[in-house]
């Protein structure tokens, strides 16, 4: 499941515009650092691992133009990119890797440093695809032939370089010949489940149905779900996990009805400097996003919305955190 979410080919960086899916598959060319920042901020690209990879290419683009101040500008652009979205720690991690590569390469001049940083960004992309595949293999311990599963938001190939995190287990299960069924939360207000996860699963020939977010706890309570799989945008040192808003509520339903609640994420999603969930910054997006769908207003013009993009699931609610190395133990 490599959907070419981000592609650097013949000197051109392009990304799949996820705002237009599933009705239109269109790529957007990103020529500048600012364009990369705006693509992340405007949700053209989303998903913690993919945000980091795209930002890594953005860091390389800082060196594309021949300017006398290219060294100084690089550090400025790193700081700029790091502010695109605050919750996903993969963004910070990827930029740190690019800074390390720059420190080694800058002595060879701007052009050589640019080429080296492009290679580093490509390497990060390729490694993400490999580790997501490994996550999918480790998730098989929780996926049985004939099972029914539920996922929230989109933690699939569209959120990564390939395969995904929470969805990677479904693709590997399919490769192994397992028959599974997936319930897909719609995921308001951006509808990542309805628009993106369902599109992915259709491409992967995995049977599924879309449900309203508010129906998930009902399905869990009726034992129609064997396990819930979600991704993560940041995992604190104690295992508390930030993920798309609505994840915490799912964890409560699973805890009440003794259903496994599985978090799937690469090690780059862990933040050892963050002691617990209270220390994770929660992105507040414009309130107007929840008052409309695809630009069509659903309320009177004087209404206001409150729109936190993420919530925190305590580690005590999580059955297992699965990384590319297997189950994580704090």
Number of helices: 9
Fraction of residues in H or I helices: 25-40%
Residues in β-strands, percent = 15-25%
CATH topology of the largest domain: Rossmann fold
What's the domain count? 2
CATH top level label of the largest domain: Alpha Beta
- Basic shape: globular
What would you say the CATH architecture of the largest domain is? 3-Layer(aba) Sandwich
Order of helices and strands: EEEHHHHHEHEHEHEEEHEEEEEEE
CA gyration radius, whole angstroms: 20 Å
The low-pLDDT segments are: none
Number of strands: 16
**Helix and strand composition category:** alpha/beta
CATH superfamily of the largest domain: Translation initiation factor eif-2b, domain 2
| Termini Cα gap | 31 Å
Overall average residue pLDDT: 96
Widest β-sheet, arrangement of strands: 6-5-4-7-10-15-16
> Largest sheet, if any?
7 strands, mixed
What do you see in this structure?
There is one protein chain. The protein is an alpha/beta fold and 330 residues long. The chain folds into two domains: 6-134, translation initiation factor eif-2b, domain 1 (Four Helix Bundle (Hemerythrin (Met), subunit A)), CATH 1.20.120.420; 136-327, Rossmann fold (3-Layer(aba) Sandwich), CATH 3.40.50. Helices cover 36% and strands 17% of the residues. The chain has nine helices and 16 strands. It has helices spanning 33-41, 48-61, 70-82, 89-105, 110-138, 168-175, 192-203, 216-221, 247-257; strands spanning 6-9, 12-16, 27-29, 148-151, 181-185, 208-211, 227-230, 234-236, 241-244, 261-264, 270-271, 292-293, 296-297, 310-313, 320-323, 326-327. The protein has a seven-stranded mixed sheet with strand order 6-5-4-7-10-15-16. Helix 4 (89-105) packs antiparallel against helix 5 (110-138). The chain is globular.
